[in-house]
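Running low. Invent one:
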Amino acid sequence: MTREKLIKKFPYFATQDFSHAFDPLTDVFTRDVIKGYMQYLIDKKQPFSLFIADIDNFKYVNDGYGHKAGDSVLCSIAQFITDILGDRGVVGRYGGDEFLIISEGITDYNDVWKIGHDINMNIGNLRFADDALPSVTLSMGISRYPIDTKDYEELWNLADKALYRGKMKGRNCFIIYLESKHKNLDLKAKRDVAFSPMYLHAKVFNTLTETSNLGMAIKNQLHFLVTYHMYDHLCIETPSGMRFQLIHALSKHKQFESIDYNELVNIIDNSGLAYASKVSSYSSSMSEEFIKLLKKQSVVSAVYCRIGAFDKVYGYIRIDMTDTVRIWQTEELNLIIETARVIGLLLYYNNKTIEELDYGTVEIVGKE
């Protein structure tokens, strides 16, 4: 949308001094202008939706390709969002790698979903002038005025909660805030994201050794993984079936079946790990029957990690995501590997098997 058309469609901008209204790098509205627009709409009691859009793993672009390349990515994404939106909203740069979208007059869930879906589905087609640059994805959190709240600060808070949920689901998605699903999400947990890898790896060891009850120790560690990363489903697969089965309260799916143990043995690589951001396109030795079973359980993304020590294999940690493609992060894969490694050693030195431990019934964990 041209700036002239923008002024005509959204009266607020007719009052703006456009000499300072646009971010000098990305050429979208500045933070102050877009925040002022949001406050104006609230003062006028004009319904709108707020999108907070965050570029996934942007630090990797800056660190790996340089800040000039990072600036190029920011400009391209700003133009991409502007083009996708058309006359459905306006874009502002909040700062760093975050953008804000205000869709005036659009609050119906399906209409908001369509905007998020259009952005999410098309960003994979974005190409940069430098072919060496990696593809990028966005995570978005969305709140709606006055459906979710009539308060300015709370609207930010709710969109931020939705964004946090999207990040913990594996990024590359959009989440529309719904009180019934997201009310109890605690943003204080964002502090956990800043924990260093050293802290997290120490936590694995401490949790698994803080009690002499090995079954309880394993259960506590798996609880931590599910709630920290918001996995839909986690269990340990053994030759005799699933053990320590945990399902997140926010998962839409609550029914999971055991998968062929011999298939797991075949797809695990030498590192003891196999994972797929999109199970349906996984190109390993995974059979059609195996993929069919996962699809039956609505599994979109998955991780399998061998639990073993020396020449013994005790089972496999299995993690499933069911709603959106999850882009597995190196840090979380390392945490899963570390968990499996320590469990394997503890089983070995205690001369135990998974089947011998008290693992309880299926549990629903986390907050709704």
In short: The longest strand covers residues 312-321. The chain has a mean pLDDT of 87. The chain has two domains: 3-190, 195-365. The radius of gyration is 23 Å.
